[in-house]
Amino acid sequence: MATPQPASTQRDARIDALLSRAPVLPVLRIDRIEDAVPLARTLVDAGLSVLEVTLRSDIALEAIRRIVDSVPGACVGAGTVLDATQLAAVARAGAAFAISPGATDALYDAATTAALPWIPAVATASDVMRGIDRGYRRFKFFPAEAAGGVVALRAFAGPFADVLFCPTGGIDADNAPGYLRLSNVITVGGSWMAPADAIAAGDWTRIGAMARACLALSR
After folding, report:
1. Domain residue limits, the chain
2. Into which CATH architecture does domain 7-212 fall?
3. CA gap 174, 184 in Å, rounded
4. I want to staple 193 with a disulfide (CB 3.0 to 4.6 A). Which of 4, 28, 77, 210 is the partner?
């Protein structure tokens, strides 16, 4: 009989399976509901199947629902989750995971019974240690460039050898490879492949080309 895995180990495995699909996690703000499905379909068709839809617009939850219902192959997560109420709401909307720009005790508590894996954000070694105390080994590193970037994450690798990060914030096609070469980075988050002007114009061809280029980013 297999030995049951601790909940934290199972959570890490679920997060790893999601974030390791591609070198880049698109971080999306969707302001018009009619853009949700074509944007998601463009990114999925280009090879970026795991998407983060941020709760930065009034239609974000509906955008998540529509993508889940209408875009086969899309794995949709919710970003900018700030409290337990939002964590529950994104789960009801069908999100496969949730990400926050920081972490609070209330969110750590709510995540213990949440129906989806939650990824807290850290910016300092103390933040990482607090997360470890709560059983976490997978974090968003935010805001990545402002919080020390590649140099900070390289320093984290020593004391936190079993921790993996998804750096987000100030990352683009030029500096992403430097992050991806780090052994403690599982993927990077960014929005450069879906610029606001291209979304507004419905320029899915341009977005698709930029998304395909993300797959070529080297470790």
Report:
1. 7-212
2. Alpha-Beta Barrel (3.20)
3. 19
4. 210
Residue 34 annotated as catalytic:
no
Phi, psi of 50 (to 5 degrees): -100, 120
Annotated active-site residue in 34, 52, 62, 145: 52
pLDDT at 110: 97
Amino acid identity for residue 98 in this structure: A
Strand partners, 75: 50
**Does residue 140 have an active-site annotation?**
yes
Instruction: Single out the residue of 184, 150, 154, 186 nearest to residue 169, CA to CA.
Output: 150
Give me 191's structure tokens.
């929005």
pLDDT tens track for 62-111: 999 999 999 999 999 999 999 999 999 999 999 999 999 999 999 999 99
CA angle 34, 36, 42 (to 5 degrees): 115
